[in-house]
Structure formats: structure tokens, C-alpha cells
């Protein structure tokens, strides 16, 4: 199914939806950070649950699923930075159109200062290997370079990023709302704050403060639009990449207990809704995942893609 998208540079790009009829490979990473001060409880369970779900629901073979968890006895299966990068390269190696690749990450996430201007909020998103204190984190730009840029047109990669600050964890430039609409950079919240600040400054007789607030609004709006343009120009891809993240870039994702088991809230909701109702569109799946979490958690899962998508299509993996 051939489609066309326009990048931020105004250039038309071909892309193709994967039919997911080719090779299936998966990488499931669950990091509890055992013995560390920031220890989690549900991430290893998440990785195991996702592996079982992929085998049961989408026909993946266990032999084609790599597991990295910090309780693994084999050193090569521990989620160190080096092992995670190597496993990601394995996942996308020799990928072909209509292949279906799946990445699941459950662990800590965070942010660091953006250095290339593609983030509207000025921060890159990062994930933390088990040895991050020695080896460092992995930035979303690097994840994009390894997992997205290397894929051919028509190859599907589905990513579940169950971690804090994960909204744009793969740097995919197209994000969708529960109404199925393509989201634009949200300037309203920032604009409201700057205008309120300007109004209060003016009321106090601080004309200079009022002008600084208005100029801050203009600068922020211009910076956000520039970042969006850079992201679409550099991160749009003909590969068929979909990311389901546990929350917005500004939010945290819960490590919790559901159905009597420690789990990540996003991983639980994703598996739960598709197990109950396997046939769902992208939009329905986003709505249902959010609905499961809404009553107990503040996080809002996000759907993003490497090119514009029809959210009414059936989600397949």
C-alpha cells in the first residue's frame, strides 16, 4: 500500500505500510535495577509478559525474541548499555519490507539537554541501561539512528516505551490525539503563562517585565516551530515505525501492581486491552489504553509515527 508524505523541507516522501507478513523479530528489555537506590519492581515481569503476549497474540516464535533482563544468568542477556545497543542492531539487521519488528522497553527514562534543535521543549529523552552510572544513558537521537534510519520502506517496527518522559522516546515526528488528529506543538500552555506574567507585570507598573513576557512568548513560539520543522525534516522516515509510549515527555510512568503482579502501568494496559479485543484500530487502541489508566494514573500514553498514518487502520504487529 503506497502512500506519500511531505517532510518539513516540503519534499514529498514515499512510504509503505507493512503488511507484517514477513519475518518477525522482537527485543524485550526489562530492568529492575536490582540492588540500586532507584530499584523498580515490575519491569522484568513486563518483559516476560510482553514476550508471552507476542507469541500468543501475533505469532512470534520464542527463538526470534531476545530478552535482556537484569536477573539473567548469562552476562550477554543483561541489559547493559553495550548489550542493549548490540541487541537493537540485531533487531533491525537485514530488515525487509513487510517484516514486523517489535521493541519493548520497561525501565527508567529521563531527559537531557537537546543539542541539535529537534526538541520543542529543549530536552532529549533518554533511557537508562542497568550500568548507566558507569556507561551512561542512551539518548533518543541514538535510538532513532539505530532503530529507524536503518529500516527500509515498508518494514514495521513497533515500539513500546514504558518509562518516564517517553512521549518522543524514538524521536518520531508525528504524534496523534485520541480524536485521531495530528498534534501540533502545544503553544497554548506556554503562551498562557507568558501572557499572564505580562499582565501581572503591567498591572504592577512593570512595563519592562510585561515586554519581556511578550518577547518570551514570541521566542518560545518561534523556537517550537523551528524544532518541529527540524524534526520533520530530519526524522521523517519511509519505514513503517510506530511508537506507543507510557506518557508525555513531561510526565512519569507508574511502576505499580495490577492483577496481583508488579508491572508497568503502560505494559499492563497495552496487553490487557488487546487480549480482550484483538481487533482494534490505532485510534481505538490509544483510547482504550488511556481509558484503562485514566482512573488510577495521571500519565497519558502517546501514539507517534515515522510518517503520517491513517489511525483508522487496524493495528497489526
UniProtKB/TrEMBL annotation:
GO biological process, any: proteolysis
One Gene Ontology MF term: cysteine-type endopeptidase activity
Lineage: superkingdom: Eukaryota
Entry-linked InterPro entries: Caspase-like_dom_sf, Metacaspase, Pept_C14_caspase
GO CC annotations, alphabetized: cytoplasm
UniProt keyword annotations, A-Z: Apoptosis, Hydrolase, Protease, Thiol protease
Pfam families to which the protein is assigned, alphabetical: Peptidase_C14 (PF00656)
Domain Peptidase C14 caspase residue range list: 23-308
Family label: Belongs to the peptidase C14B family.
Protein name in the entry: Peptidase C14 caspase domain-containing protein
Organism: Botryobasidium botryosum (strain FD-172 SS1)
